[in-house]
Amino acid sequence: MTFRKIILLFVILSACSKTKDTRLFELISNDKSNINFNNTLNYTENLNPYTYRNFYNGGGVAIGDFNNDSLQDIFFAGNLVSNKLYLNKGNLSFQDITEQSGLESSGVWSTGVSVVDINSDGYLDIYVCKSGPPGGERRYNELFINNGDLTFTEKAKEYGLDNEGLSTHAAFFDYDKDGDLDCYLLNNTIRSIGIGIDLVRDLRLKGSDKGNKFLRNDDGTFIDVSDEVGIYTSEIGFGLGVTIGDLNLDGWQDMYISNDFFEKDYLYINNQDGTFKESLEEYLSEISMGSMGADMADINNDSYPEIFVSEMLPERHDRRVSKAVFESWDKYQLSLSQGYYNQFNRNVLQLNNADGSFSEISRITGIDATDWSWGALIFDMDNDGLKDIFVANGIYKDLLDQDYVNFLANPSIISNMIKSESEPIRKLIDMIPTEPIGNYAFKNNGNLSFSNVSSQFGLDEPSFSNGSAYSDLDNDGDLDLVINNVNMPASIFKNNSEKNWVSFSFNSSGKNSFGIGNKVYVHTNGEVQYQELSPMRGFQSSVDYRLYFGLDTIKNIDSVRVVWNNGLKSFSKNLSVNKHYVFYDSLASNDIEEVSNDSKLNILKNKDVIIDYLHTENEFVDFDRERLLFKMNSNEGPCVCVDDFNGDGLDDFFVGSAKGSISSLFFQSEQTFLKYSEPFEIDIDSEDINCLSGDFNGDGFVDLIVASGGSEYSNFSPELRDRLYLNNGKNIFLKEESAFIDINKFESTSTISASDIDGDSDLDLFLGTRLNTGSYGIKTQNYILINNGRGVFEDQSDEYFGDNRFMGMVTDSEFVDIDLDGTKELIVVGEWMPVGIYKIDNGKFINISSKLGLEKSNGLYNTLEVVINKDSFPDIIIGNHGLNSFFKASERHPLTMYVNDFDRNGRTEQIMGMYYGDDLYPVVQLKDLWMQIPSLKKQFLKFENYKNKKMDELFSKEIIEDTDKVYVYNLASVYLKNIKGKEFSLVELPFDAQLSTVNSILVDDFNGDNLYDFIIGGNSTKIKPEYGINTANFSKMFLGTNEGFYALGSYESGLKIKGEIRDIQKLKLKERINYIFAINNSSLKFYEREN
């Protein structure tokens, strides 16, 4: 080897070594830490996951300075092994003092552990929850009182905390502000899980002494007041996590309870009178199905806490299709009907909207899938001033492995095994696959963006991790991490951050000696960080009582404000960094002025307008006809049209209906709106998707066209015929039967746009079609209809379009002059197709999209709206599926759909695929494939055969080559900036516009600054459970600036609407500007402009 090569090798090795050394967390060896705890779980014929369901739930971790030497000690909860207490000796070296401290617990199954000064003597005590098989010594929960000399005395019975059951964890906090700490005790139950028996309405109302408990501290004795305070105590509360915090910032702590299995989670809002109200459905719209651990903290530094809940959805494709169990659509609907709410297989991150609502944003932030996850912790790992997310991960046996589950479902095999094996249950468990999975770390990048940095942070080593806790174990200013693993040594990770920090603790002379519930606001450089002291969090664990704030490179703290749980306040200015501060309640006062960041513009105000209208969606399930669809297409109404239909100078409006309901015109009068429905009664069986007003027969009166669509009809259904209602000028509308007689087939129409295409001064039409019934994915025919001047339209699509008439599955359209040459172009958007722009040239519509830079703009677009800014060149806002979705798409890795009659039975199938890395895999469930294409069951008899199959390997090469393939390159809602009519620049709309589907857009100048603003509306609930619904949008206003748009909170705009908004229209009502919001399966909402 030459000298030059030796030098090069040395440089490479040095670089590798440097990379390794700079990982944020460093695993401390057992030899250094002297911690040798291992939560060893060996199953037997009598004790195993079948005889005890929570066998692999693991144990918790608790951090506390038990001898007040300013070094944090560690307590591990063991299941089949003894709990352990390790005394911190400094420099990350510990001493096992379990035996001499009186905490030995061999043979007692411990789960969660809580550290709390229960007797207010200034020393932290330990409360240990017990579970496992019933009976035996010390089976009750134990309270170890700290004697102040590193010994503990068990006194649970004396305090009324000796519950015996399947306890998971306990949280202590002062819920009634009487100065002492009360207790929420989280219990699981032994109740078996069975389909049909469990999904019964109001089971949670049936109390049980085995359920959760709320224990009020009455002079040192804990009294069960569960019924009095209003919590559920039933046997279906399969609780795995309890998280405490003031969610609505009213000064009183609330509770979030994570429930496993079919029961929904609970959100208890403190009523400030000694009771709680379970309010989950008022605050949250989507939650986890098998909720595990949880945490609560402010992730975007707006001083409002978010909620993170872990679940079991795998990130890897092979595990997702073979280890996860998703509800069918019918089962999901049954759960909804019985009151079990919108639960989905994924982690959830609930963004606090500061208005009593939360938006679930786990998918857009990329933290939705972390496999079988337990501990969930939100803290600033790298001290950059932004809180990151850690997830402890893994289950020792893949209990949901689908091949194994199917094996168990074969009674003959199980019967033979029972007869032939001496220990059949152990044999069955031996057969369950085992795969350790790495833990996850997500770095907060700011602006509600996260990156998976598990490897960079040094936390991705495969393991079976459960409880976890953070603490500054070595007092160097960053938070280290402690993890309790199953059948592996516990992990101690040293944090190597070198950024600035500050930390705080509290000293209270009252019974809440350590200040649980206190809030700290740290102000630096015009920004604020917020934390609330609630040490019991994550999964079965308790964290450091000191509150740590990362400061990055900041060298001076402007001010710190403390709000004590009892209402007192403390304030300090100009604090130094890299120091710990103690606040004393004896120095606090009531005189400090509160800081308010609320800026209430109130641009819009909800107006109570009584309208005799309720949109009622007909019951049709698209998945019964096409099992491989990811969403339904039969709930896309209602539509609204605003015009002066009766010529009295007042705005009237038409609102469409679903199949089985009657549409109506509403004429504005001085007092109210007068309903007019007679002409629409005959078309009660049609589904109204779009409407258009205008004078279509040249008599000077405003007529109405209604587009009939939906997916619930056949290709032979006359209900799909679009309708023209002519105005006779006497407030009477008559249906013109011959208007569309030239269209010789029934189509599912989605959009109708009008323009004088042939230059004869009447309104011609573009008619866009949504889908071919029963054949989603096949391109549809679209139409150019030329008006004869009397409201009868001739189909001239072939002359004007040629082959361009088969442009895709169209959802919206508009005629607009994009290049200011005096002739309007046709803009068309739809699903699985690019933005289409068609220019009239010699009597033909020519597709100029590619010339304008839109060749690979394919999306799942729903709507478009034109914006004309100061340069006069029209820009376009387009509503898309959104980025808060399971689906991912890019130009390099497009979302893909294969469309073909794969089994040659005369019916079209569509199989969706998504890239994992550089490989395209099907994302449809194997069971759905079996049902839709039965021949595939022979090829994929087991999930093992399917889990690694790529899209092109599902069928023969000949079939794949004969298959239509359509693509989506972009899922974001976008702004198309018109560059002088020669090019469009596609820019993603702000984050808040990407949280859900956007189905309607309205452009207006809401704040009077002569710049256009816009409102979006959307949401979609008819999506299969494995992909999850989209309901994170409560309608949103975006104000325009010279640089772009920014979102307003509802407390600024006044706008907050739940539901699936399908249309937004502007209307003048009694000389005031109003906006109508048309919502699927709901009544109309009116908002009035305040300025």
What low-confidence regions span 5 or more consecutive residues with pLDDT below 50?
Answer: 1-20
Number of strands: 74
What level of helicity do the residues show?
10-25%
* Structural class assignment: mainly beta
Mean pLDDT over all positions: 94
Taking the sheet with the most strands, its summary is: 5 strands, antiparallel
Sum up the overall morphology in one term: globular
Fraction of residues in β-strands: 35-45%
Number of helices: 19
Report how far apart the termini are. 80 Å
Rg for CA atoms: 32 Å
Explain this structure to me?
By secondary structure, the protein is mainly β. 11% of the residues lie in helices and 36% in strands. Strands 55, 56, 57, 58 and 59 form a 5-stranded antiparallel sheet that branches. A hairpin with a 5-residue loop joins strand 16 and strand 17. The longest helix has 19 residues. The N terminus is likely disordered.
